[in-house]
Design a protein that fits this description.
Layout lengths: L3 H8 L9 E2 L5 E2 L1 H9 L3 H9 L3 H4 L7 E9 L2 E7 L5 E7 L8 E7 L2 E3 L5
Parallel strand pairs: 2-7
Antiparallel strand pairs: 1-2, 3-4, 3-6, 4-5, 6-7
Length: about 120
């Protein structure tokens, strides 16, 4: 696992994505998200976001094409929040333990593709 400063610096380099990787639960993810998952050993984050893409969840039309996902970590536990717009929370998942190295990260799920804000 890379250190938080290395990961944060590297994430800023991703703008756009020429490759979309496919997750087994049906969403895609960009090169920046793949780097994040590799560097932070956090494929579980992609799994968690993908696992929430259920018919019931997506019955909210505001979530069908655009979602904001925020992970915040404090003292080895985390909170994963989904918003349909900034400050408009629709889902909160508490994570009892995580070794995710960064205090917070934001990703977007747009038209079933998970990406970093800089890749939008």
């Amino acid at each position: 696992m890379e250190n938080p400063e290395q990961i944060t610096a590297a994430l800023k380099q991703f703008i756009g994505s020429g490759i979309i990787y496919q997750h087994w639960l049906g969403i895609g993810f960009t090169e920046g998200v793949k780097y994040l998952a590799d560097a932070a050993e956090a494929y579980w984050l992609i799994d968690s976001i993908a696992s929430h893409q259920t018919k019931r969840f997506l019955s909210n039309t505001k979530l069908q094409n655009f979602q904001i996902w925020l992970l915040s970590v404090k003292e080895k536990s985390g909170t994963l929040i989904c918003e349909w717009d900034t400050g408009k929370e629709v889902l909160r998942q508490e994570i009892e333990y995580t070794d995710f190295p960064i205090n917070s990260i934001k990703v977007y799920l747009i038209s079933k593709v998970l990406m970093l804000p800089t890749e939008y």
